[in-house]
Design goal:
binds fe (ii) ion, Ribonucleotide Reductase, subunit A
């Protein structure tokens, strides 16, 4: 060893002051049947998310404080009820376990040349979905950095959602370009409910619009994907996207349930968000062509099997719209806000359409 370096090392004194600033010590988390999950490491005080967080420094939850740490965030979300849900750790692990690749998990070779009208409709739908998936990733992303690190479970679940949405964005873009077509004009469908998602000033307002209404409606479409797929690749795309989308919707349902249970004084406010969602849902029922004209027509052509069978396709589209209402109502009930369907608050038309779907 160089003599100068050796002399300096001998001079260096260890500062073990950091040992006095430990988080809770002596913790031992054990793997469960699915490995060492986030749920398994909720041990001791590490498992306790505070009702209110004063953490503005990016300190990991449970770590010792450092008085000289810089403030790194002006976190708007520092009250648990504003972002919390009970099962975020499970949703996060599920998201990790069920990642897929749009490059290699879709049998792209099964896409064969299609009649022009069908290919154009498919490309219009793919354009619309690429646009929708962009919003679904972009909007929650803004909220992550506004949330205290003490609520890392919902933060990380939203991060996983953004990875999912990135893949959805690319898989529909790939479909548009995979069979001699391309992107068509953007749909304009993001001007209504989708646009309002981005104008939300509160996380729960955003979640009700994005997770419950927007992604819920998209999930119902993906679940009917078999009816509008022309090859194994498209079927697989819808199936895998539906699996991801179901997790995103579950986030919203569970967050809303947490509010219903812990902050009932906010229920009236949430009902107002749902009033808005239902107006949009019903507008789509009463005149689907008035909403997202291009994507509705594209869906009807795909469902009917071509432009010549548009009327048949349109009837199937109405069935999907009814299914959207039915599933929306189930979700709202599951979230703890089902009283609106009993006390006359919800539009009675909703029940009518839901029954038609049953
Ligand atoms: Fe998505
Ligand atoms: Fe989503």
């Amino acid at each position: 060893m160089n003599a100068v370096v050796k002399a300096e090392e001998e001079d260096a004194e260890l500062d073990l002051g950091w040992l006095q600033q430990l988080g809770e010590w002596g913790m031992k988390a054990s793997p469960g049947k699915n490995g060492l999950s986030l749920a398994d490491i909720q041990v001791g005080t590490y498992g306790e998310a505070p009702e209110h967080s004063d953490n503005l420094t990016g300190r990991p939850r449970g770590a010792g404080k450092r008085p000289d740490a810089f403030r790194v965030g002006g976190y708007e979300i520092r009250d648990k009820q504003d972002v919390w849900l009970e099962n975020a750790a499970l949703l996060y692990e599920e998201a990790q376990n069920r990642q897929w690749s749009s490059a290699t998990d879709i049998p792209w070779e099964t896409i064969k040349p299609l009649p022009d009208d069908v290919e154009q409709a498919q490309c219009q739908l793919a354009t619309f979905l690429t646009e929708v998936e962009f919003v679904a990733g972009d909007v929650p992303a803004k909220w992550i950095a506004k949330t205290t690190p003490d609520y890392y479970e919902p933060r990380m679940t939203l991060l996983a959602q953004i990875m999912d949405e990135s893949r959805h964005m690319d898989v529909f873009r790939k479909r548009a370009l995979a069979n001699g077509g391309g992107l068509l004009a953007r749909s304009g469908g993001t001007a209504g409910i989708v646009g309002s998602i981005d104008m939300s000033r509160d996380f729960t307002e955003m979640s009700s619009r994005l997770h419950i209404s927007g992604e819920g409606a998209v999930l119902s479409i993906f679940r009917m994907g078999e009816l509008m797929a022309y090859n194994e690749a498209e079927k697989r795309i819808y199936r895998l996207c539906a699996q991801d989308e179901a997790r995103h919707v579950a986030f919203g349902v569970m967050h809303m349930r947490y509010i219903a249970d812990t902050a009932p004084e906010r229920k009236e406010e949430i009902h107002c968000y749902l009033d808005e969602s239902e107006r949009n849902l019903l507008a789509g029922q009463q005149n689907p062509a008035a909403q997202q004209t291009a994507s509705s027509e594209a869906l009807a052509i795909l469902l009917g099997g071509g432009q010549a069978n548009f009327d048949e396709g349109y009837r199937k589209l109405l069935a999907i719209r009814r299914r959207q209402i039915n599933e929306y109502m189930q979700r709202v009930k599951s979230a703890g806000f089902g009283e609106r369907f009993e006390n006359g608050r919800a539009n009675p038309e909703l029940k009518k359409y839901a029954q038609m779907a049953a």
